[in-house]
Amino acid sequence: MIHPSTEHDLDSIAVNLLDTPPELDVKQHTAYEFSKAAQERIRNLRATRHRFQPETQREIACLLYEADIWLLLHNIKKTATSTPFEKSAMVRSYIQTLKQRGHSEYSLEEQHDMEHEVETEIFELAKRNRLLPHDEQPPQKRPRFVADPTLEQCERLHHSLYRAVRAGDKKNIEHYLENEYSVWQKLNIQQYLDINNDYQHDGPDWTYEEREAWRQACDTMIDKDETLGKYGRALFGVASGNMDSSLAVCETWEDIIWTYYNTQAEEHLKNMLRSSPANDSSESGIVKLEQFYADLALQKDQHIDDGPMSFFHSVLLAILTNDMTCFLDKAYASFVDQKFVPSVQAGSETPLFKSVLRFVSAFILYMREDGICTNDERADPILAAYAALNGLPKNLQPRILTFYASKLPVPLQIDVVSHFFSSSMWAPEDQRALFALLRDFETINVTEVLKRTSERVLGPILKRDPNPIFNLDDEFFLDEDPSNSKELLCISQGIQWLALDESLNDEFIKMAVQMIRQYLQRRNIYLAKQVLSLIPLDCINLAVLRNEGALRIPRHLAEIDQYRITVDTFYSYRDWKDLMRIKPEDTGDLESLRSVLVWKGQFEPLTLKLAGQTRDLLQSEWPAELQAVIVPKLQKRLRKLEACSEQLDN
User: Fold this and answer.
1) What's the whole-model pTM score?
2) Is the Cβ–Cβ distance between 165 and 107 less than 8 Å?
3) Average pLDDT over residues 211-234
4) Which among 442, 609, 497 is positioned nearest to 19, based on CA atoms?
5) I want to staple 228 with a disulfide (CB 3.0 to 4.6 A). Which of 83, 207, 232, 241 is the partner?
6) Alpha-carbon distance 546 to 17, whole Å?
7) pLDDT on residue 120
């Protein structure tokens, strides 16, 4: 029986979401549902007793990226008809939510507090060692910045405020602007925050001229204020959309992307103020990331530790650039060639491998629905790899395999599904269930799948040497041989795949004929008989009806009838020989006379029947490979039968 695996529920959820008819409203929320499912899986993993194991932690890390990516795709869907500013601002806000690397997790205020704690601890140590009088008071918490801060202190402040703006940390931004900043600098930063916030809610209050004057003021500070270090210039570059000054402090992939979309947002906002928000329009989709900046972002990943980040960054770039090339290169190398890139290094038997491949496959299909990645030759083998993975015993999920196979070109789908069908010996009810599953998917070429499956199962039998050396007097094999049990199972399985589909009725009979020919050629009458027993009479009758009115009955139908008679003749001849051996002796008494009459009543009809069948068979047309095996044997037996008939007549 088929027992589907239920361990990886995300696989089934993905199929259910992707298989939703496009006309349903829920289709607009597919990406959001994917994100929710990934987050639920994370919660489940964190609740298990294996949550601290490295493999589980790696899977959680990948799922976190997956949830983020689906959320971006959902936001893209939501803003499909929005202005370019709104689209750019959406990506900028999205990047702010991604985990930061390579930066302190502490705010400037927290760092200052830690410094004070260290000073207090040093004071107490000195006091205990009598380096200070016992009545000496500990140092008071000093002001975070003096009234006239040094350039170094200003740069520290700019650094912290830049990180707060970059992370969208409103609490720390407000704190810095209220307590740490000069009025002029505070005004410039506050206006950047206000105008972006106002536009997303009630619309901008500034005119184009006012905003340009403000932008010019920020650029002037960048160019002429000698008190500004690189983070000071970067901070005001963020405010004015000055890309060069902002890029100078970018340390991570996320920094580059955030800076690009911040600049895009500022540029599109300027264009909207110059005309009118109502007149602004945009093509459906996302504001594309220029390839130069995509490459610049990828350079930042060259220095990170092994992990899923680099791989999932390639997924994000595929979305933002509307170009799947880099992503598909990595995915193909990882899951088809299995020349693992460090970002998804795991064996193909691990849950992590399947988890990431599941996401990649769902992502490819999702993008195809939007007209992206439709013709890339690397995408289909990736989908095929995931489909095949769901056919392995430990991952057995036939519906998932069939769904993804249905999205493949016909030659590839036939290869994937037939390989799965032929990989196990299925019970008849399982074969019927799998056949019914195939018919649920309109794009599956059911007949070709069944034919290819049958060829795979029977291939080893059909390809072996059909011409063993026999002497003319060698006997034929009429009895069961236990060593043939596995072969019989293969024969039954291979032929029954064809019997499932009525349209393959002729193919079914032709395959059976091919098997019978081989067994007759090998003198194995028993196996030929078993193959004949697999062909229902209804199947023969249906084939005959379909050819009714034809000038000549098709050769494969004629052969089936011919081989039935041949097999029957061989078994009847053995019965005939057995009767010959037990012929009773006529001793002249009544009992012996009675025995002779009974024997003749069996022997004479059988002799006549056999002689007639043998003559008919000798007059039949035989395939060349059977001519040298069957015909000489029949001729020899006919001579014996005729000789016996003459003796009986006498």
Assistant:
1) 0.80
2) no
3) 84
4) 442
5) 232
6) 43
7) 55
CATH code, domain with 523: 1.20.190.50
- Domain encompassing residue 557: 461-649
Please tell me the least confidently modeled range out of 103-112, 413-422, 433-442, 528-537. 103-112
User: Could you give the C-alpha distances from 141 to 112, 133, 138, in angstroms and in order?
Assistant: 9, 20, 9
C-alpha dihedral, 609 to 611 to 615 to 620, nearest 10°:
50
Residue 524: phi and psi, rounded to 5, are -100, 90
Q: What angle do CA 21, 383, 46 make, to 5 degrees?
A: 85
DSSP 8-class letter at 567: H
Q: In whole angstroms, give the CA distance from residue 309 to residue 312.
A: 5
Which pLDDT value is given to residue 211?
77
- Residue 317, pLDDT score: 94
Q: Is the pLDDT of residue 376 over 90?
A: no
Q: Is 159 exposed, middle or buried (0-12, 13-18, 19+ CB in 10 A)?
A: buried
Closest CA to 59 of 307, 262, 226, 299: 307
Nearest CA among 466, 527, 535, 436 for reference residue 495: 535
Whole-number pLDDT of residue 39: 94
Give the pLDDT confidence of 474-527 residue by residue, as tens digits.
688 999 988 888 899 999 999 999 999 989 998 999 999 999 999 999 899 999
Instruction: Give a yes or no: residue 174 inside a domain.
Output: no
Asked if residue 396 lies in contact with residue 2, where contact means CB atoms within 8 angstroms, the answer is: yes
What span, in angstroms and rounded, lies between the C-alpha atoms of 346 and 128? 55
Place of tokens 């106002």: 198
Report if residue 580 sits inside a domain.
yes
Which two tokens mark 354?
A: 């399947």
The answer to whether 626 touches 562, Cβ cutoff 8 Å, is: no
Q: Where are the alpha helices (DSSP H) in 522-623?
A: 525-533, 537-546, 555-581, 590-619
Report the number of distinct structural domains present in the chain: 1
DSSP of 340-364: --GGG---TTSHHHHHHHHHHHHHH
Cα–Cα distance measured from residue 265 to residue 235, given in angstroms and rounded to the nearest whole number = 16
**Which of 518, 514, 522 minimizes the C-alpha distance to 495?**
514
At 62, list the tokens. Answer: 């990948």
What pLDDT was estimated at residue 138?
A: 55
Residue 124 CA, distance from chain mean position: 63
Angstrom distance (rounded) from CA 324 to CA 318: 5
Does residue 110 register a pLDDT over 50?
Answer: no
Q: Which of these, 164, 152, 156, lies nearest to 105 by C-alpha position?
A: 164
- What is the residue-averaged pLDDT of the chain? 82
- Asked, for residue 13, whether it belongs to a domain, the answer is no
- Residue with the bigger pLDDT between 586 and 4: it is 586
- Write down the pLDDT at residue 3: 42
User: pLDDT-based confidence at 22, cuts 50/70/90?
Assistant: low
Q: With 0-12 CB in 10 A as exposed, 13-18 as middle and 19+ as buried, what is 505?
A: middle
Calculate mean pLDDT across residues 355-384. Answer: 88
Q: Is residue 134 part of a domain?
A: no
Which residue bears the tokens 């610049």?
296
Extract the tokens encoding 42: 């994370």
Environment class of 230 (CB within 10 Å of its CB; exposed 0-12, middle 13-18, buried 19+): middle
pLDDT of 1 > 50? The answer is no
CA distances from 536 to 164, 496, 505, 509, 511 (A): 78, 11, 11, 10, 14
